[in-house]
């Protein structure tokens, strides 16, 4: 009787709500294409032409990168596939490097692709890959319309898992053409922590770097390394190799550890990058408020001390004549009202938190990059 009661009380939303069920794709009868080939535009992987893998650092870097950072570089945060097609249907076929395994981040954010329609400045979310999160491979329909129509498509790669292979499925006879070009060929590079990487957005498009990419028509490169954005000089040297940088954002305070480490790493990271790129704007971004700070004064004081180091470092470079280095106080990135409601665990933003971060940073980046502010 007890076992029967237990089974009766168990809630299975996928059986009760058709909107919660997984799609059964089966034989879709589609033509499968690789985004590695033209006319698809693949962005967010600076060494792709060299290594032919979806990875945020080179397979064999010229400097000794810590193994943890190398492993995390396999996560495809910030990667995007852009194209236009008149196919009435579109599907993706994905092979992951690993399964979803995080307690505080949905599998859709960890391992899913999401899809946006439209061009930069006017992109709108349409769908997320709905798949069995216990699997390493999935094949899902991303949209299905009754008629052909030319649509601009952007697919965002998973934030916290690697992608071994991805294929795009279209209707037989459908056309695929190149997306609208970026405003220029320069790149916005954002280096940082798990927050930069996208933890813990519910889907890839809600990482703050991806939100910014929908507002500024340039390639964004996400170099966030969960728990390991520590200002390593070797990483500074590798990032200096990325061609045509437009802006470098340093958002790694949350992983900097003790104050002495920040005092040591920040000036050195900037010095190394400046050797390669003397005039590229650099934005030093202090971290968001953590929810526990109002109850633990030591945490608040540490953030204030860290911010002081960052401000003094930037000011020191400016006194030496570097007019292209800037500081932004991240205290209000989550807003001043209810900022503590914008994270999943007091540290990692929810979608609301990431949206607030992007809203605050959009005009800052637009100004540094020379784009007029949107009304």
UniProtKB/TrEMBL annotation:
SGNH hydrolase-type esterase N-terminal domain: residues covered: 31-175
GO MF term list: hydrolase activity
Pfam families named among the record's database cross-references: GxDLY (PF14607), Lipase_GDSL_3 (PF14606)
Occurrences of domain SGNH hydrolase-type esterase (ranges): 186-366
InterPro entries: GxDLY (IPR032740), SGNH_hydro (IPR013830), SGNH_hydro_sf (IPR036514)
Keyword Hydrolase: yes
Keywords: Hydrolase
UniProt KW DNA damage keyword: no
Residue runs in coiled coils: none
Gene3D superfamilies: Galactose-binding domain-like, SGNH hydrolase
This protein's name: SGNH/GDSL hydrolase family protein
């Amino acid at each position: 009787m007890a076992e029967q009661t237990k089974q009766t009380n168990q809630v299975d939303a996928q059986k009760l709500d058709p909107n919660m069920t997984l799609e059964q794709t089966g034989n879709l009868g589609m033509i499968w294409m690789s985004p590695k080939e033209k006319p698809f535009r693949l962005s967010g992987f600076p060494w792709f032409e060299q290594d032919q893998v979806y990875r945020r650092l080179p397979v064999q870097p010229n400097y000794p990168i810590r193994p943890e950072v190398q492993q995390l570089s396999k996560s495809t945060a910030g990667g995007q596939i852009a194209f236009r097609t008149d196919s009435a249907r579109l599907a993706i076929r994905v092979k992951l490097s690993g399964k979803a395994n995080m307690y505080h981040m949905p599998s859709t954010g960890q391992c899913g692709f999401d899809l946006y329609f439209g061009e930069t400045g006017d992109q709108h979310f349409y769908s997320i890959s709905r798949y069995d999160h216990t699997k390493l491979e999935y094949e899902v329909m991303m949209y299905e319309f009754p008629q052909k129509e030319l649509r601009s498509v952007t697919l965002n790669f998973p934030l916290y898992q690697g992608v071994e292979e991805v294929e795009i499925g279209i209707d037989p006879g459908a056309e695929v053409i190149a997306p609208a070009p970026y405003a220029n060929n320069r790149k916005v590079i954002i280096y940082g922590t798990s927050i930069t990487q996208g933890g813990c957005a519910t889907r890839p498009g809600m990482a703050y770097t991806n939100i910014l990419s929908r507002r500024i028509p340039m390639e964004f490169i996400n170099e966030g390394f969960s728990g390991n954005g520590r200002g390593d000089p070797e990483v500074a040297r590798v990032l200096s190799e990325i061609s045509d940088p437009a802006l470098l954002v340093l958002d790694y305070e949350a992983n900097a550890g003790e104050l002495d480490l920040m005092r040591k790493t920040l000036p050195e990271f900037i010095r190394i990058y400046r050797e390669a790129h003397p005039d590229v704007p650099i934005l030093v971004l202090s971290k968001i408020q953590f929810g526990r700070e109002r109850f633990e004064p030591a945490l608040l004081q540490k953030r204030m001390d860290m911010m002081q180091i960052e401000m003094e470092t930037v000011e020191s470079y400016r006194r030496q004549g570097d007019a292209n280095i800037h500081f932004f106080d991240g205290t209000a990135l989550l807003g001043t009202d209810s900022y503590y409601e914008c994270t999943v665990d007091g540290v990692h933003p929810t979608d609301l938190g990431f949206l607030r971060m992007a809203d605050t940073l959009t005009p800052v980046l637009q100004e540094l990059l020379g784009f007029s502010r949107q009304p």
